[in-house]
């Protein structure tokens, strides 16, 4: 016969039975009350969990405790009940995690929050080693400093909250604050914190990465450069625009490395002004430069500059860089990156042959307008179709290059590879393909090959300079299927790293490649190759190969294209 009592009346009945220690009757009453409720209250679930405890049915009590948390995530009782039951079940580690989870969800204004905090602290102390010793009390300061240097700046700052002893030691050790790294900041950084770090270093910060400062942090940057006269490395992320960064940079006389991300937008004249005022620079990166059709006034010699990166903002004319003057001013340049300088108003006017460059990046830059590039190059990257497709047979021989990246050249990939890997043009203007004296390519990246067929790609990969390849990266190449993939170990028997991202290979190719290169292949990337199977991936990993099999969107993958380079 169905009961006529309400859930509240059944709860009161159960409490009376519980008080008389008639636990089975109390359990029946509480259960009937829960069954009669569409959404049982946490209080009623807590009563039944307590009754299960008295009946030594700890599993059922724990299930009710978990349901209490589900019903009221901000209610402290579910965490207290679950933690208590888990301790009785001899699972103190799990109980501690439940308490920690509760402390993250229960509002601090809850009157029982301190009770939950107390249970957490009591259990934490109980399960800690009986003779736990603060390492600060036994280790010499020199060793502690070495240990702290292995932590990121953010991790070291978190250590300030461990104890008063740790706070005092860390804040009084100047050597730990000579690097200010805000690259891991997850929220806005208060200028007061930066000033405090400068004070702790006694004004001796040598390396700084600024990020997430309010309003771009122009005032904070000014304070940093004026106080820290020994600053040698500076990176600015999400920084101030234009001229507001110029004055702070002139106050850093010992600056050797400067990197400004795309948020710091400068004109070409402002870039030249920075370089003229800081002739001590050895490495400079400007990731958002607007030329505005004005020729760069380089002005002074920069014999210390060894690496320069200039990224154009929008469509800019490479002629405005006045590269002939650049070559004269920077004779010791070893690394040059000219990104997105797509427009070129003059043909065959760019000659970098007199430089002793080791690395050259011409991504999205009008490469066909370069007359000569240094034969000293070891690494080169080009991308994007020719700005003037009517120019044919243009060669840029790179006999000593060992790392080559070509991407997004569309139908001009073969033409580009021939121009780079040839020996230049002979006396009749034909491409000289005799490359017997050229250095073998060790690393090759071919990205976004578009409509090329397997036959086209196989022909391009048979260039003699590729025979000793150790690293091959074919990304967004839909023409790469099992047939071609299985021939790669034969073409390149020395392969150690192979990336086939966004291709059409299957698990058959994965197993075949690993078997043929057994003992030599160290890394295989098949990200976003949707036809691969998990069993083939697991098998390859079991053979000792590091396999990456992530799935991301095509747009994100394109943005990460140059990371491997």
Largest sheet: 16 strands, parallel
Question: What is the β-strand count?
Answer: 18
In the CATH hierarchy, the third-tier topology of the domain at 7-127 is known as Serine Threonine Protein Phosphatase 5, Tetratricopeptide repeat
| Rg for CA atoms | 33 Å
Helical residue percent? 25-40%
Distance between the first and last residues' Cα: 77 Å
Q: CATH superfamily of the domain at 7-127, please?
A: Tetratricopeptide repeat domain
TPR repeats: 7-40
Domain F-box: 133-180
InterPro entries: F-box-like_dom_sf, F-box_dom, LRR_dom_sf, TPR-like_helical_dom_sf, TPR_rpt
Pfam family, one: F-box-like
Could you characterize the architecture of this molecule?
This protein is an alpha/beta fold and 565 residues long. The protein has a domain of 121 residues: Tetratricopeptide repeat domain (Serine Threonine Protein Phosphatase 5, Tetratricopeptide repeat, Alpha Horseshoe), CATH 1.25.40. Helices cover 38% and strands 13% of the residues. Helix 17 links the parallel strand 14 and strand 15. It is extended, with a radius of gyration of 33 Å.
